[in-house]
Amino acid sequence: MAHSSMFSYNITRPYPMRWFTPLCIIGFIIFTVLFSFLNFVSTGYTLVVQESSNPNATVDSGVWMHHWPSFLTSKVQPTCQTVNLPVGSKFFTNQTALTYTLTDVWQPQAGGAGAGYGIAPSLSYYNNVIENCSVNSIEIDFAAMDRSANQFAYSEWGAVVRSYATCEIIDTNGSTKFNLTQEYDYVPPTVSFSTLYEFLGTNFLTRNKTDKASLYWGESMMSMYWAYTTRQMQDIRANQTSNGLPGIRRGTCYYYLNDDQTVTNITQLNFFEVDFRFIVDKGQGDFDVIYPGSYGRYQDYTSVANLIKQGSYPNIWMSADILAKAAYSTVLTDLGQVSATPNILTDSEYLHHFTSNFSEARHSIANAYPGPATQAYGTEGTGPLGTTPSVISTKYLCQVPQRKSAGNLFVAILIADLVLLQALWYLFQLGVEALFLRRRPSSNNCVGCAVQPAAMMGGYREVAPEVRRDDKALEELEMSGLRSSRRPRESSTHTRSISQQRLIRPESMDLGHRF
Ligand SMILES: *[C@@H]1O[C@H](CO)[C@@H](O)[C@H](O)[C@H]1NC(C)=O
Ligand SMILES: *[C@@H]1O[C@H](CO)[C@@H](O)[C@H](O)[C@H]1NC(C)=O
Ligand SMILES: *[C@@H]1O[C@H](CO)[C@@H](O)[C@H](O)[C@H]1NC(C)=O
Ligand SMILES: *[C@@H]1O[C@H](CO)[C@@H](O)[C@H](O)[C@H]1NC(C)=O
Ligand SMILES: *[C@@H]1O[C@H](CO)[C@@H](O)[C@H](O)[C@H]1NC(C)=O
Ligand SMILES: *[C@@H]1O[C@H](CO)[C@@H](O)[C@H](O)[C@H]1NC(C)=O
Ligand SMILES: *[C@@H]1O[C@H](CO)[C@@H](O)[C@H](O)[C@H]1NC(C)=O
Ligand SMILES: *[C@@H]1O[C@H](CO)[C@@H](O)[C@H](O)[C@H]1NC(C)=O
Ligand SMILES: *[C@@H]1O[C@H](CO)[C@@H](O)[C@H](O)[C@H]1NC(C)=O
After folding, report:
1. How confident is the model at residue 464 (pLDDT cuts 50, 70, 90)?
2. Which of 253, 287, 285, 259 lies closest to 271 in space, CA to CA?
3. Domain span at residue 99?
4. Is the Cβ atom of 172 under 6 angstroms away from ligand 5?
5. Are strands 99-106 and 122-125 parallel, antiparallel or unpaired?
6. Mutate to test the pocket of ligand 2, among 101, 103, 166, 177 (most ligand atoms within 8 A of CB)
7. Ligand 3 atom nearest 56 alpha carbon
8. Global pTM?
9. Which of 244, 200, 263 has its CA nearest to residue 226?
């Protein structure tokens, strides 16, 4: 008695078709390559979180994947998140010069700020170019005694220059407008004593005289006229007190664009109008306020030209006006307003005009030394003037596809390939069997059956006894008289299944035929 195992194996025989082997090998190679490639594209990459300061470039770096069907690559496209800049936050542009505070955000389409609609708590930002900026006003706040002793050592008077601007970004949702405030104080409260009698380099994050010449001159003009104007205030106060007169304690000048739209030459004195208040400390809690109406008709004395002509007290009008114009131009340059005119810093004629008194001004300063340029434009070589469009400098969280490690990738692709190739092989076998083998009557015989027909025939009878038993049972059933009129042999043949018929076929097989 042969041992009968729980497991069994199939008896195989070679495929009878001549084309079968080459087709299999070629198909195997082609499909291995194809499956490896598809598996590589769809599973070879994992998304990792990265920080990027240029999301457009990061997203474009995955552009090769755009050519493949999205169902394969949608999970491995690089994406970046928009950044929310809350109202009140500070930022700088990619010119890396001045720092701004975001003060208002609104969407004009949603009713505008006036209607109270469309006011947003933050600016949704995605590397949009800052557009359509206008500097609405410049304010210069003067203060003397109320500053820290540290600041006082640099300069008895201080000035804080605030620039108010409105800008716009245009994204897929349309236009979003926002207000910005820029605050410039050459000697800020945080200044260190260590830079006394040196160029301080405050407020501007970087400078480069060849690459960003316009901003280099903007910083020079702002610090120079800051130092010059505050020294003038110091001299005026000294003159007052030496004459036994009360001095000014604080003051503010508010520069706004002339309503007359025809004034486009920034060198003209009526480019800005000025409103102001100066507080004269008379002691014992008593004070006077100097305002345009102090000299005559209010409207006449908001004109810078009139104030200069009259030499109105305190006579800082010329230098404070230039300081305001320098701030105006620097902010527009830093915000990348390429086409903004007029702008001192992008026009060499204007820049010549406004820096022509640099060496003179340099000698009328206190201990805060301005810079980086201290000579008129043209005396030292700087790069070309001009600006480039600006974007807000911030970090974006991006998901970037990263290739899996080689070992990881090999195992992943190998397993996926094996599964797919196995499935394909199975389907192929089914197809070949259905299309080619079914038609050949002898193809389901084992090799041995073909070689030793007599021996195997006996075997058939043994392995399929139930066929005969069925025959017998049917015969017995019909013989028992229920349907005695029928021909029993024929009906029993009909009830056999196809496979049973096949098993019985060998009796009629053409044994001489070989493949
Ligand atoms: C700032 O970014 C804009 C937009 O990407 C670019 O055109 C410009 O050259 C950049 N400016 C600087 C100074 O890097
Ligand atoms: C933005 O600033 C401009 C000028 O300073 C002002 O008229 C406007 O009301 C401000 N916008 C909002 C929403 O406050
Ligand atoms: C970056 O892409 C966004 C969205 O596509 C677009 O609005 C923005 O202008 C682009 N920024 C730059 C600097 O090209
Ligand atoms: C803003 O800029 C766009 C193009 O950059 C221009 O078409 C549009 O007229 C500008 N809007 C204003 C209010 O200046
Ligand atoms: C556009 O607005 C929708 C809904 O307010 C917001 O989810 C989406 O982030 C906005 N898109 C941009 C680019 O700001
Ligand atoms: C200024 O910019 C140029 C060009 O980017 C660079 O080669 C140079 O080192 C920069 N200079 C300074 C002082 O950073
Ligand atoms: C100094 O003050 C006196 C009296 O107010 C004035 O007449 C004179 O012009 C002042 N001088 C300067 C340089 O301001
Ligand atoms: C601006 O005005 C000054 C003096 O009034 C003149 O010399 C200069 O050519 C003018 N500039 C422009 C651009 O009109
Ligand atoms: C330069 O100084 C001269 C003489 O002090 C003065 O007349 C002129 O207005 C000054 N120019 C500027 C731009 O400050």
Report:
1. very low
2. 259
3. 83-394
4. yes
5. unpaired
6. 166
7. 1
8. 0.81
9. 200
